[in-house]
Amino acid sequence: AQSVAQPEDQVNVAEGNPLTVKCTYSVSGNPYLFWYVQYPNRGLQFLLKYITGDNLVKGSYGFEAEFNKSQTSFHLKKPSALVSDSALYFCAVRDRGSTLGRLYFGRGTQLTVWP
Amino acid sequence: DADVTQTPRNRITKTGKRIMLECSQTKGHDRMYWYRQDPGLGLRLIYYSFDVKDINKGEISDGYSVSRQAQAKFSLSLESAIPNQTALYFCATSDPNPSGTGGTDTQYFGPGTRLTVL
Fold it and tell me: Distance between CA A101 and CA A104 in Å, rounded?
């Protein structure tokens, strides 16, 4: 069965500090992994994805994520947080062996960046 | 994403009423999805459609129905709304074979419809 865990409901960091939003996953095959961000009163926006190759994936707004197969993790990172990064972040996984295109989402992590 | 639009953006209704939420897209994608979002639960899939003639139930389809009127339009109906269907509803689209993306079927979301059932 496919599932995604985001162990932290909330992450608080000071502006200028590095941030990490954690994600672990479980899939029956090999994964495609995604991060989405949701700003207040907006839909989900695609941030980045892991397909294959380099374990460090770079995405929009200076975010990056590191795929770790042995730990089944795909943590989202940013070297220097901005107040405008405050939003709800979702990790999602898809089994690349599936033709259904079905995404499984984590419950979300609320990121708050303090000025 | 402005390429995926949802109407209405907000709706308040009463128990037992029939409600239709509409989704339109200009991305030219064949695949469309309906999700609901509840606080602390993430997104859960209600229905999905891979083309106009193909509609499939997701994990929480009970109490909902859908219609794929055209490639660009996918509507969600609540035949008889109940309070526990109060949620934020999202439509999404994807293309399973876009060039340059490795066929990952990345989904793109509309702005959402906030539905309150009293």
Answer: 10
A36 vs B109: CB contact, 8 Å cut-off? yes
pLDDT at position A101 is 67
Pick from B31, B48, B112: which is nearest to A43 by CB?
Answer: B112
Contact assessment for residue B43 and residue B50, using Cβ atoms and an 8 Å cutoff: no
Provide the token pair at A45: 């926006």
Percent above pLDDT 70 for chain A: 96
Distance between CA atoms of residues A33 and A2, nearest Å: 12
| Of residues B4, B40, B104, nearest to A51 (C-beta) | B104
The sign of the CA dihedral B33, A42, A51, B103 is: positive
The phi and psi torsions of B62 (rounded to 5 degrees) equal -60, 130
* Distance separating alpha carbons of residues B106 and B102, to the nearest angstrom: 10
Round to whole Å and give the CA distance between B22 and A34: 26
- Whether residue A101 and residue B94 make contact (CB cut-off 8 A), yes or no, is yes
Which of B106, B108, B113, B114 should we substitute to test contact with A (largest number of A Cβ atoms within 10 Å)? B106
Question: Which residue stretches of chain B have pLDDT < 50?
Answer: none
